Predict the structure.
Amino acid sequence: MASITVILYICICVLAIFGNSLTIVMFILERRLLKKSYNILILTLAITDVLTAVNVIVNPSFVLGDAFPYPTGPILGEVFCRLISTRLLIFQLVFFSVYINLVLTAERWCAIVKPHKYNYAFSNKRVLCYIVLSWVWSVLLILKGALAVGYSPSGDKICQRNDSGGTLFNAIWYATQIFLKMIIPCISMIGMYVHMISKTLKSPAASPESVAKLKARLTLMIAVATLVLIVLYIPNQIVFFLSTLGKIQLNTPLHKLTCFLTFMTTCLNPFIYGLSNNIYRQRYRRILFAICPSVMRGSRVQAEDVQANDNHALGRTQLCTEPNREIAAGEQNHLAMFTDLSLDVKE
């Protein structure tokens, strides 16, 4: 069972690195796309997903296991215990992704509901500020967890947990954490999409431009990516919160399943981009053709052969029908001539 889990993690990590690297390369080759604020945020998400996948691969809890080079010194030991063994480095990237999705949702909301304020609220400089603030906020969210663990080798363990404060304080603290990590961003994203729909489709004062933006493939793409993130992310946070209350144990099959669902989001975004947005799909094809020209050329030749066969079949049909048309026309002409001759004889 453990080997199957490792294989599954390797598969989603490889897909995440490949798909998101494709997105990153697309923006590197066509930098003019980054003039749009939403593309800057999508690039940030792609980089974050690649970093998350790499961290999942090297983390001993998921793939490497005992093959991980465990530290023996105090400095590296503290780094390992506070960031790697606790998985906080990975979940800091997950929290960062959640808040970048929140900014993306706000960008769509502003473009549709408040278009007159869009250029001010989502200029490129402001978007970069939002990204930096999201990163700092995600670090603050994991800070207490990193301080609660330290390097203290004893027996078969090198990391020891020390939750300062009483049980009530820790329960309040973790409840606040869940509120900030999950409830606020998720409810905010859902609320903004509901407001966009109600404001645009149900309001007679909505402009045609706002309706067009709501129905645009870009908005659909971001909405689907956000919904997938929420659905796959919430179970893990619920399990974690219940574990802080002593209701559920960590590292159980249920907890591992929720972790797997959370990390699945890293490999799904590129597929969502490609399936829902024709512009992204065309650029993905160009990059893949440059990377694997023989494979892509083979698929193109096959498509051209199919088209040629269709054209050939159509040509044969036309060749078969044209002589029949000529024969029918000849018979009609012959009948007309015979009728004329008969009339002449009667006269």
